[in-house]
Structure formats: C-alpha cells, structure tokens
Design a protein that fits this description.
Structural class: alpha+beta
Strand order of the largest sheet: 2-1-3-4-5
Strand content: 15-25%
Shape: elongated
Oligomer: single chain
Number of strands: 5
Length: about 220
C-alpha cells in the first residue's frame, strides 16, 4: 500500500509534525529522508529493508559510496544528501560547544567527538581547545597514525594550545577496533600531556576515547 493511502495519523511526515521527530522510529525517520520508495516497496518498507540488510542505522550511515549506491532506491544524489546531513549535524554540535561550556555538557562533547571520529578507519588524535569559559575555540586533528596507534608529540600539543590562547583542553582519539577502554600507553600519554600543559597553566579537562558508537571518559573514570 502506498504511503498516501495510509491514514494521515500514521504517515511519517504527519507524525513528525504532530508528535515530534523523537517519537518516530529509525525506519520512519529514514523514510522521510528517502522520500520515495521503489516499484516493489513503499518508502517505509524500503527503509525497513535497508535497516535490516545493513544491520542498523549506523552501518547504513557509515556506508561508502559504492556500497550505498548498490541498493535499490538509493544513489549518488541521496548519498550526497546524507553526507550533507551528517556534516550539518557535526557543525551544529560544534557551534553548540562554541556557545556552551563544554565542561558542563559532557554529552554534547561526546556526540561531537563521535561525529568526528566514529567513522575513522585509522587512529586519529584530536585536541579541543577551550577558552577561559570552557567554550570551544576550535578542534584540531594533530596526529593521524596507523590502524593501531598514533604518535603524539607533547611539544606540538603545547605549541598549538598556546597559539590559540587556550585556557583548557580536551583530548580525544579513536579506537578503530571498537574497544573503548584505554591502553596503558593511552594513560601514560595523557599524564605526560597533562604535565606538559600544566607548566603553561593550561588545564586538561578530559581525554575521551571514541570506539564506533561507544566512548570512554578519563575524567568520569577518575584516571585523569
């Protein structure tokens, strides 16, 4: 049955307008994004099929162009639209941190870092540079390593922080393996960087590890 033949109260767009996006399922939200189905599937059934075949929303959103483009009802135009939506989401979170105190909004920080790091195939090390109100000045990708490690130089971290007149920092890196727990090397590096920044009166607020959809906060676990 075509979506237009459904009762208005059951159609995804109408439900979003009357009940809010948070009350829609993944399939309904994806259906609004897709807009049209195929000859065999209405748009909601297509969305359900895609979510089932990709084993969830995240693998679908993370799919590369070749994989995404191979499915019925998708293509280059929708791939571009999807990437634009993801980038808009990242920029929204970034601007939220520019206006809000990062230290008092840990969930926003984690969501922002997941938008930066969750799709990376190799280990990357970011630093969030904050002003004296703990608002985001900028985020910088400082080091990009192999799939297992990234070589981080304290001198470059300190130089970058001083260059931006930073008052505090949050470190972040990803674990492409999917295990969010810090290694002994991660803990040792964090202590080394914190010590170096203390010498120039710059506080280290946290070090967050992103492992796909999971995160690990040094501050929350009391090991900072």
């Amino acid at each position: 049955m075509k979506i237009m033949e459904w009762p208005q109260t059951e159609r995804p767009r109408e439900r979003l307008l009357t009940q809010g996006a948070g009350n829609l399922s993944d399939a309904e939200l994806l259906a609004i994004f897709l807009r049209t189905g195929t000859k065999k599937l209405n748009v909601v059934d297509l969305a359900r099929y895609l979510l089932h075949d990709f084993s969830g929303l995240k693998p679908l959103l993370d799919a590369d162009f070749k994989t995404f483009n191979s499915y019925p009802g998708l293509g280059s135009a929708k791939f571009c639209q999807l990437q634009a939506c993801l980038e808009l989401s990242r920029r929204y979170l970034e601007q939220s941190l520019e206006l809000e105190q990062a230290f008092t909004n840990p969930n926003t920080v984690k969501q922002y870092l997941k938008s930066l790091l969750s799709q990376k195939k190799r280990e990357c090390f970011y630093i969030l540079l904050l002003n004296n109100q703990h608002q985001l000045i900028t985020s910088e990708l400082l080091f990009k390593g192999t799939i297992n490690s990234s070589e981080v130089h304290p001198r470059i971290v300190v130089e970058q922080a001083l260059k931006q007149q930073t008052s505090a920092v949050i470190f972040a890196h990803n674990h492409p393996s999917g295990n969010p727990n810090p290694s002994d090397a991660d803990i040792a590096l964090t202590k080394q960087l914190k010590k170096a920044l203390n010498l120039v009166d710059i506080r280290t607020l946290d070090h967050i590890i992103v492992a796909q959809s999971k995160t690990y906060s040094f501050a929350e676990h009391g090991i900072l």
